[in-house]
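Whiteboard transcription, Tuesday session. T.W. wrote the structure tokens on the left side:
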């Protein structure tokens, strides 16, 4: 004789996520923020990604309590929320450091030195991929392409760019982070902690003076191709930081970058404007995309 599932007290529905709720005061505060986020979307479930950032900003990672909160306010199942939270690597699933240091080891960065940077940082910090230093400051991870290949090899700290890194500059970077010394991203807004970054990613304004203005646009290296396509005769020539700068090899990244070529500098055939379809009478259309597209 068999017993039914209900007789055994087993639910065949979606299992409840066994997670404690937030304390009342925290939940009230988060609900106020959540209502503001949800109001931006015609369909409330579209607010799930920013809400996951919101709960990540609260605790530093997405906890079961945070997922339960998202499910409650969006009227989703905890299984639906869990499926999303575990799909995207930007959501951390365990307690981690104030600074998420991601070394791009995707193809271009890897061959330009990303693999060496990651290996040396592991040895220097004494942690492996996804692990956090004992002081709770730095979580090291290898990351996929962050669309900054023209600044390879790239290191991201809390999603801010540190371009054209070397093993030495990367080690100095993590030392500064652990010691509490100020560090400046190569471009973009000033660095903030992971929790602060998560709140900005949830869609709340970056209140720091000058932070929004500092976000800027594409860097010179990203725009060289566009300038060439426009037929400019003297495009910015972006010099790799290692070129002719052996004694400057470990200089701060922000000291490096583009410079305008002097008249004595000779542009290689790769740098010179080329005939393209834009100059072909049979195909008179110019470049298909404008800057920023
Ligand atoms: S390969 Fe590293 S940013 Fe694209």
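and on the right, the sequence the group agreed on:
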């Amino acid at each position: 004789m068999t017993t039914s599932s209900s007789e055994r007290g087993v639910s065949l529905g979606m299992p409840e996520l066994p997670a404690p709720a937030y304390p009342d005061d925290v939940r009230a505060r988060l609900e106020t923020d959540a209502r503001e986020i949800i109001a931006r979307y015609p369909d409330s479930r579209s607010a799930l990604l920013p809400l996951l950032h919101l709960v990540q900003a609260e605790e530093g990672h997405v906890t079961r309590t945070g997922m339960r909160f998202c499910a409650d306010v969006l009227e989703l199942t905890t299984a639906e929320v869990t499926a999303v939270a575990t799909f995207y690597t930007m959501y951390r699933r365990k307690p981690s450091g104030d600074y998420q240091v991601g070394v791009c080891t995707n193809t271009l960065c890897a061959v330009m030195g990303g693999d060496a940077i990651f290996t040396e940082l592991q040895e220097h910090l004494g942690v492996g991929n996804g692990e956090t230093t004992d002081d709770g400051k730095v979580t090291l991870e290898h990351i996929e392409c962050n669309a900054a290949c023209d600044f390879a090899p790239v290191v991201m700290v809390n999603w801010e760019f540190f371009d054209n890194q070397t093993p030495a500059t990367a080690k100095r970077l993590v030392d500064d982070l652990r010691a509490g010394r100020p560090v400046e991203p190569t471009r973009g807004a000033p660095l903030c902690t992971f929790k602060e970054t998560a709140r900005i990613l949830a869609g709340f304004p970056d209140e720091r003076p000058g932070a929004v203005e500092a976000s800027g646009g594409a860097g010179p290296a990203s725009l060289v191709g566009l300038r060439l396509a426009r037929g400019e005769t003297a495009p910015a020539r972006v010099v790799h930081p290692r070129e002719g700068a052996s004694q400057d090899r470990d200089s701060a990244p922000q000291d490096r970058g583009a410079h305008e070529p002097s008249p004595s500098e000779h542009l290689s055939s790769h740098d010179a404007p080329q005939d393209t379809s834009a100059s072909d009478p049979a195909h008179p259309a110019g470049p298909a995309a404008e800057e920023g597209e």
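Someone added at the bottom: DSSP finds nine helices and seven strands in the chain.
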